[in-house]
Design brief:
Phosphorylase Kinase, domain 1, 224 residues, alpha+beta, Transferase(Phosphotransferase), domain 1
């Protein structure tokens, strides 16, 4: 069952809001909306033209279904409700976007948290697939990691998980190795360095998360 929306379209137009993300033909506009009960994040595809709106709605619906599956999990946005066919409302998570400086403060702790969160996602049948983008990871004042933007995430059926689950898990976990190689190469273990290099062989299957030359060089230096 789709939860009732905490906002209506007229509320969305009336309440103060600030942009959190640039829209495109298929990507939603992302707003921080100030409600009487506190701020919410709203993803809205109303701006999409008639030729692309059906795709944008389908993608937003896929994200909604993923978030419904993640309802028991902490550290990710929770679905607050559906505003209409074009918009959903989510909880606003605390924290700052992951930076090199934040990562260097305690790289092993953040890697441990990232692995723990991705393991919990995978146990629920969800794969984020866009964790290599630092903007999708937030670190709060207590050093707790949060994952956001499940627009690229999928929750495939049992057969796809059986056939591709290992690859999809690797894509999510590869983000941690990427950040280690880029920001704290001295922290890489031999196994992690090999994982960075192994990703080269998968880049034709998943080019979005292939290591850069900088990360590859860091991995090779660790193994020399």
């Amino acid at each position: 069952m789709i939860p009732p929306g905490p906002l209506t379209r007229s509320d969305l137009e009336r309440l103060p809001r600030t942009s959190m993300g640039k829209p495109s033909a298929f990507k939603p506009a992302v707003w921080r909306v100030e409600t009487p009960q506190g701020p919410l994040v709203v993803k809205d595809v109303r701006h999409s033209g008639w030729a692309t709106r059906w795709i944008a709605r389908w993608l937003l619906g896929r994200e909604r279904r993923v978030l419904e599956r993640l309802a028991p999990l902490a550290g990710v946005p929770h679905l607050e409700g559906v505003i209409d066919a074009d918009a959903i409302a989510l909880t606003l998570l605390p924290g700052r976007t992951l930076t090199a400086e934040l990562f260097k403060q305690d790289p092993r702790e953040l890697v441990t948290q990232l692995f723990a969160l991705t393991d919990q996602l995978h146990a629920l049948g969800v794969f984020h697939l866009d964790l290599h983008q630092r903007r999708n990871l937030l670190v709060d004042e207590d050093g707790q990691l949060h994952l956001v933007d499940f627009g690229a995430a999928i929750a495939p059926g049992r057969l796809v998980r059986a056939l591709l689950g290992r690859l999809l898990r690797h894509v999510d976990r590869q983000a941690a190795y990427k950040f280690l190689a880029r920001f704290c190469p001295e922290e890489l273990t031999d196994d992690e360095a090999r994982a960075v290099l192994r990703q080269r062989s998968l880049r034709r299957l998943w080019p979005l998360s292939r290591p850069s030359r900088r990360e590859e060089q860091a991995a090779r230096r660790r193994l020399d």
